[in-house]
Amino acid sequence: MAQRPTDAAARRELEDLRAAINYHRKEGLCTDVVEIVLPDEHAPRERWLTRSEAAKLLLCAWRYREIQKGVATDRRSRRHVARFILVGLYTGTRASAICGAALQPTEGRGWIDLERGVFYRRPMGRRETKKRQPAIPLPAALLSHLRRWKRNGQRFVIEWNAQPVRAIEKAFAGAVADAKLGPDVTPHVLRHTAITWAAQEGVPEHEICGYYGITRQIFEEVYAHHHPDHLSKARDALGKRKRHNQVVARHKMKATESEQRASNVAKIR
Questions:
Q1: CA distance 93 to 72
Q2: What does the pLDDT read at residue 20?
Q3: What architecture does CATH give domain 51-226?
Q4: How far apart are CA 10 and CA 135, in angstroms?
Q5: Closest alpha carbon to 192 in 70, 25, 55, 45
Q6: Mean pLDDT of 147-168
Q7: Does 100 score more than 70 pLDDT?
Q8: Predicted pLDDT of residue 10
Q9: pLDDT digit string (tens) for 4-13?
């Protein structure tokens, strides 16, 4: 039985259809205006991992032992998931780009320059799309892992049986279940987590947008409230007003006390 497409998938297909119709009309191939009604967009994703949750997920994937006939074997069949988690948390790269990346220049794939430490996320020969995939410098810790994987014979960032992994969702869901994190933790949550952590660390907005390939609008809608500088001017202004009111109140109190002392002196005389 065919799986029912999600609302998000249906919306993307309708957006593609609308773009095709508009292009067709722009080229003068038709004159009729066809209106495409899109489903409402979902609210921005809020789920992100705490550092303890991320560590637990990574450990469950790395230590997993395959079960055969009810017995745990020595076959560690989810270590490719652990590598995927590591790259996702360090770079905030989309799952498809991580799974599609090679450790050397490869036509049709993104790749990592292990000498210079640069991740070219957009596949070679492919044009830029709305899902921007800028080349980024890699953290030293992740680069050390990648270089070791290459020395151990890997040709791609994520491999299973010496072949590039096409999809990670099923194995990732198994690691999530073992870590008891709930079905709302999907591969995309790693990207959301990386950006959230960067915002919490106070990384400037323009650097976050540039590194993770998101627009300023997305940052403001989804991540800005995590940043320590979010609405800081409004916060500081309220603080200054409160301090001003306290100073005024103390001044009035002193003035009142002075008046009372003057009045008492007059009565004694």
A1: 33
A2: 81
A3: Orthogonal Bundle (1.10)
A4: 30
A5: 45
A6: 95
A7: yes
A8: 73
A9: 556 656 766 7
As a whole number of angstroms, the distance between CA 110 and CA 158 comes to: 12
Beta bridge partners of residue 118, listed in sequence order: 113, 137
Q: Where are the domains of the chain?
A: 8-39, 51-226, 233-269
How far from the centroid of its chain's Cα atoms is residue 162's Cα? Answer: 28
Q: What is the pLDDT of residue 219?
A: 94
- Residue found under tokens 């020395």: 151
What share of the chain has pLDDT > 70, as a percent?
A: 80
Average pLDDT, the chain: 85
Q: Which residue has the tokens 């009810």?
A: 70
Q: Which pTM was predicted? A: 0.74
Distance CA 84, CA 28 (A): 47
HEC secondary structure over the chain: CCCCCCHHHHHHHHHHHHHHHHHHHHCCCCCCCCCCCCCCCCCCCCCCCCHHHHHHHHHHHHHCCCEECCEECCCCCCHHHHHHHHHHHHHCCCHHHHHCCECCCCECCCEEECCCCEEECCCECCCCCCCCCCCEECCHHHHHHHHHHHHCCCCECCEECCEECCCCHHHHHHHHHHCCCCCCCCHHHHHHHHHHHHHHCCCCHHHHHHHHCCCHHHHHHHHHHHCCCCCHHHHHHHHHHHHHHHHHHHHHHHHHHHHHHHHHHHHHC
In sequence order, the 6+-apart residues with CB closer than 8 A to the CB of 189 are 45, 47, 48, 49
- Cβ-in-10-Å burial (0-12, 13-18, 19+) of 39 comes to exposed
